[in-house]
Amino acid sequence: MYLDPDISNSVKILIVGHFGVGKTTLIGSISEIEPLQTEEEITEASEGFDDLSGTPNKTTTTVAMDFGRLTLSDTLVLYLFGTPGQERFKEMWESLSRGALGALVLVDPTRLHESFAVLDLVERFGLTYAIGVNHFEGTTEYPLDEVREALNLAADTPIVHCDVRDQKSSAQSLITLVQHLMSILG
Q: Packing angle between helix 167-185 and helix 23-30, nearest 10 degrees?
């Protein structure tokens, strides 16, 4: 991995969430380099494994990881690693979580029940996290306190609305996570 000698702090951040929540889209919208994406066509082999009911128009899926880079300041660069969202790829999490300082957990408010397994993995690997509530076109924007309660989040867990297609919104979600990390790490 290339590290710019003028940058004093580089941070590995995971972008996580359930299948079809927008991890690849977020990294694509925010990365200052051409993102590495391991998107493959969804085939019949995924039948019985991947639930496409919440994302009927989805035709591709991440099979390994996504990678991007975002410089927040002269002294802070984020290396973004997007995890696959399907249960069958959770083995990738152990490798990707090594050295990660934190995670942005993306959730779809219409499929919150799919977020619990992801939150369990984030906590299992001891990652500090923030929640980005991704809003899809035509869906209701639920109040954050209702989403917090539905996910049973601690009062100090940051939670923000985001639109992963929008660069500014994606950046604000990551800034929220970085501010949370800085408040914990001092």
A: 100
Tell me the per-residue pLDDT of 108-130, one tens digit each, with 9 for 90 and over: 999 999 999 999 989 999 999 99
Coil, strand or helix at 83: coil
Whole-structure pTM value = 0.81
As to burial, measured by CB atoms within 10 angstroms (0-12 exposed, 13-18 middle, 19+ buried), residue 27 is: buried
Could you tell me which residues come within 8 angstroms of residue 23 by beta carbon, excluding any fewer than 6 positions away? 15, 16, 17, 62, 66, 82, 83, 85, 106, 164
Pick from 77, 78, 61: nearest CA to 24: 61
Q: Which domains does the chain have, with CATH numbers?
A: 9-47+61-185 (3.40.50.300)
